[in-house]
Design goal:
The protein is mainly alpha-helical. The protein has 8 helices and 2 strands, in the order H-E-E-H-H-H-H-H-H-H. It has a single domain, classed as Arp2/3 complex 21 kDa subunit ARPC3 (Orthogonal Bundle), CATH 1.10.1760. About 65% of the residues lie in helices and about 5% in strands. A two-stranded antiparallel ribbon has the order 1-2. The C terminus is likely disordered.
């Protein structure tokens, strides 16, 4: 696999955004559940998947997962599920991209669900939390998903119309 210059640049920008979000606390919103926080750090991963495809999405997801090792030092729980956020966002976006707004919204929703279900599912399977605690933490997916949709849809519309992503033939956002 060979990454194009554009993919490397977009990866770097989105990794930087994820690191700033994590380091400043913007990526983790405190909530009164056993998890302690809802996340917004999955947004750069979703955007990476939509904009540049599954490999770049996985790379940004890996950085997100590595950053969260400080909260739970089990890579199976915090890294592996996050490798798939950008992949699922890309697949949903690509399947529905005839309507840009709908495609971006569905990709944001599925990427968010991939993060929450993946991390909480692995935490449950690894025995870190009982099912009741997992279900309580899962409630955070509702505001996370809404936030992801509200951010991703207008951002993609802006990128398409202002930056002209729709005119770039070499992008992975093609049929």
């Amino acid at each position: 696999m060979k990454l194009q210059t554009r993919q490397i640049v977009i990866s770097g920008l989105l990794v930087a955004i994820a690191l700033v979000m994590g380091a400043t606390g913007v990526g983790f919103i405190p909530v009164p559940t056993p998890a302690g926080a809802a996340t917004t750090m999955h947004l750069p991963v979703i955007l990476a998947g939509i904009l540049e495809g599954p490999y770049v999405g996985s790379l940004v997801g890996l950085i997100f997962g590595l950053f969260t090792l400080q909260f739970m030092p089990d890579p199976l729980v915090v890294i592996v599920p996050r490798l798939f956020i950008g992949v699922t966002a890309y697949l949903v976006y690509r399947a529905t991209k005839k309507n840009l707004g709908l495609a971006a919204g569905l990709a944001a929703l599925v990427g968010t669900l991939t993060n929450t279900v993946g991390v909480l599912g692995m935490a449950y399977l690894r025995g870190y939390y009982p099912l009741k605690a997992i279900l309580t933490m899962a409630i955070a997916v509702i505001p996370e998903a809404l936030f992801a949709i509200v951010i991703t849809v207008p951002l993609m519309l802006i990128l398409y119309r202002v930056v002209g992503l729709d005119k770039q033939e070499k992008s992975l956002i093609r049929s």
